[in-house]
Amino acid sequence: MSRSLPGRALTRDEIRFHPLFPAIEKQIALHLIAIHDETPRLSRLKASHRKWLLTQSMYAMSLQRRPDDPLSGLTASRFVDLVMKLDAASRNTATAYLRELLAYKFLRDVPDIPDRRIRVLETTEASDTAMIGWFMGHMQCLDRLDGGHRSDLAAADPRLFRLAQPRAAMALVEDPVWRDPPVSIGHFLWSDYGGMVLHDLISRLDCANPAAERHDVGTLSLAELSSRYQLSLTNLKRMFGKAENDGLMGWDLPPRRGALWLADRFVADYFAWQAAKFAALDEAFHWALEQADGTPSPAPCADKSISG
């Protein structure tokens, strides 16, 4: 298979205004919901946007460990320093986050470290499967936009993921557009599991008329959302209540009966925010392909590399 791709990565506007973008937004939303349903415990890694930022940063640091330097890669002190530099969370939050990942066996100690004063950590197979599945789902969506074959290339050469994920992660956590979502969707994203609620809403959208002032979601039960995404009904009502008061969503019949609709501003803000992520991933993949070209390719990825 040719390793060539279109000469440059897609821009945010090219992605955002592509006629297929609403369809791939539904595709990635369903993909992320499937990952959640398969491994709900692992969803704690991205329960809120803050944890998403921490997870991507942590994983990128783990991938940057070098075989010739046993003290490189992910350490607690190095991770906390990065989180503080990026202003992604407090020192205590970052430290507690690592303890949580160790307790749930999403991280483990690297054995035989020459300096016992330094605790070097690495991701486990469960974390790797979820992150690679997340990455491959986005590659498949990008392929739909331009007829590329990123997902096939990444499945055949594991280096592409290992090179692209840290680059995309660092670009996104430093990007104010991605790091600080619009107010219209932000109160969902900063709440635990609110991001999953947004994915669920987008997965139900009728995208037949993207220029419509309102977008139909269909009938929706807050109690079912609460149960599926491990979110308290009180918090869920608060999220929806704020959006309703701001005129960003509503039901055909009071009180919260009939079909739910989303205002165009709500959907447009979400799509523009998501386009920043897709653009960063596409740029990182193109860069990774350039870095990997000219060196021998390893054996294809194991099946877990394309899971999710």
Structure description:
The structure is a single chain. The protein is mainly alpha-helical. The chain has a domain at 31-179 and 282-292: Arc Repressor Mutant, subunit A (Orthogonal Bundle), CATH 1.10.10. The chain is 57% helix and 9% strand. The chain has 14 helices and six strands. Strands 1-3-2 form a three-stranded antiparallel β-sheet. A three-stranded antiparallel β-sheet has the order 4-6-5. Strand 5 (249-253) and strand 6 form a beta hairpin. Helix 3 (49-63) packs across helix 8 and helix 8 (158-173) packs across helix 14 (264-292). The protein is globular and about 65 Å long.
> Between the first and last Cα atoms, what is the distance in angstroms?
24 Å
Task: Tell me the major beta sheet.
Answer: 3 strands, antiparallel
CATH fold title of the domain at 31-179 and 282-292: Arc Repressor Mutant, subunit A
Using only C-alpha atoms, the radius of gyration works out to 20 Å
- CATH class categorisation of the domain at 31-179 and 282-292: Mainly Alpha
Please identify, by name, the CATH architecture of the domain at 31-179 and 282-292.
Orthogonal Bundle
Strand content: 5-15%
Judging from the principal axes of the Cα atoms, what is the shape? globular
- Counted by DSSP, the helix tally is 14
Overall pLDDT confidence: 88
Low-confidence stretches: 296-308
Helix content: 55-70%
Kindly state the number of beta strands.
Answer: 6
Secondary-structure element order, as H and E? Answer: HHHEHHEEHHHHHHEHHEEH
Strand order in the sheet with the most strands: 1-3-2
User: What structural category do the secondary elements indicate?
Assistant: mainly alpha
